[in-house]
Design a protein that fits this description.
By secondary structure, the protein is an alpha/beta fold. It is built from 9 helices and 12 strands. Helix 3 packs across helix 9. Bound molecules: zinc ion.
Length: about 300
């Protein structure tokens, strides 16, 4: 059995694990990213995480990063969340620490999608669009004939920065009205703050749904906006499925049926698309990153 290490680099946590060639995680570790301390500290943290689970039979390492990632050369074209991360040649940097191991650097949302295709909710789908509803809104587009859509500048499938409201809320990317400001997990707090001037996190708002009218209104707007966005996804790609992942879908029992109801109301032809939750949440980056290494090794062998 072949084994590789997958590393999922996030703005707050580094999640790394040993993954076998059936997609099972055998051993994993979670470290704080310490993103505020800058690039050199984050590099050290990743190396520490990998070294702590390294074994003799590991044949490669896959590392995800947020941002626009040139996965052909392993270079970060742009990443806003970690100080100094933009411009880093991750492939060159980590090759020095782990000589002789196959190394892949990939975009985090793409690896979440690769995980779902391999062992999750996308297993039987020939084409799908994936949205990850976390602090940000990640996107990935998959078709079995082409694989993942990377784009000419490695900015393909940045679905969180499709504009949902013309001239709407200001996004960190510099645009106005990006979908991320309305339907990322963190956007529920913005909806609630606009209604009440109170700042609560998503969990707190969800926990007040039964008792607080503003919490209900904030969630209703969130779900309505998500349904609208899915109509555009359907009209642009007509995928066989849409997979919704990210931490926010843990609360889906409070809103999933409403989402489907609104989607069916809004869409001109709502039939013929499956909208399903992701099977993996926190571990999807590790598993996808590991799969990207196995795929490259298989390609070299064929
Ligand atoms: Zn944006």
């Amino acid at each position: 059995m072949r084994r590789v290490i997958g590393v999922d680099l996030g703005g707050t946590k580094i999640n790394a694990g040993v993954v076998d060639d059936t997609g099972k995680i055998c051993n994993n570790i979670i470290l704080e990213t310490l993103a505020g301390q800058g690039r050199d500290v984050v590099i050290k943290r990743i190396v520490e995480a990998v070294q702590s689970i390294m074994e003799d039979d590991i044949i490669g390492i896959g590392i995800t990063s947020p941002g626009f990632i040139n996965s052909d050369d392993g270079i970060v074209e742009f990443a806003g969340n970690i100080k100094g991360w933009t411009g880093l040649n991750m492939h060159k940097t980590f090759s020095r620490y782990f000589p002789g191991k196959e190394l892949r650097i990939e975009n985090d949302a793409n690896m979440a999608a690769l995980c779902e295709k391999w062992v999750g909710s996308g297993k039987d789908l020939k084409s799908f669009v994936m949205l990850t509803l976390g602090t940000g809104l990640g996107g990935a587009i998959y078709h079995e004939a082409m694989g993942l859509w990377l784009g000419a500048n490695y900015q393909g499938a940045e679905l969180g920065h499709m504009i949902l409201y013309p001239n709407g809320r200001a996004c960190n990317c510099g645009q106005l009205g990006c979908a991320e400001k309305y339907i990322a997990g963190s956007a529920l707090s913005i909806n609630y703050e606009e209604l009440t001037n109170d700042i609560l996190d998503g969990h707190e708002i969800i926990s007040k749904i039964e008792s607080d009218e503003s919490a209900r209104a904030a969630l209703d707007k969130f779900v309505d906006d998500l349904a609208t966005f899915l109509v555009s996804i359907k009209n642009c790609h007509d995928p066989e499925g849409v997979i919704l992942g990210g931490g926010f879908i843990n609360s889906r029992e409070k809103w999933w049926s409403l989402l489907l109801e609104r989607f069916n109301e809004k869409c001109n032809r709502p039939e013929g698309i499956k909208i399903v939750p992701a099977k993996f949440l926190n571990d999807s980056g590790i598993i996808g990153a590991a799969k990207s290494v196995l795929d490259v090794i298989d390609k070299q062998g064929s």
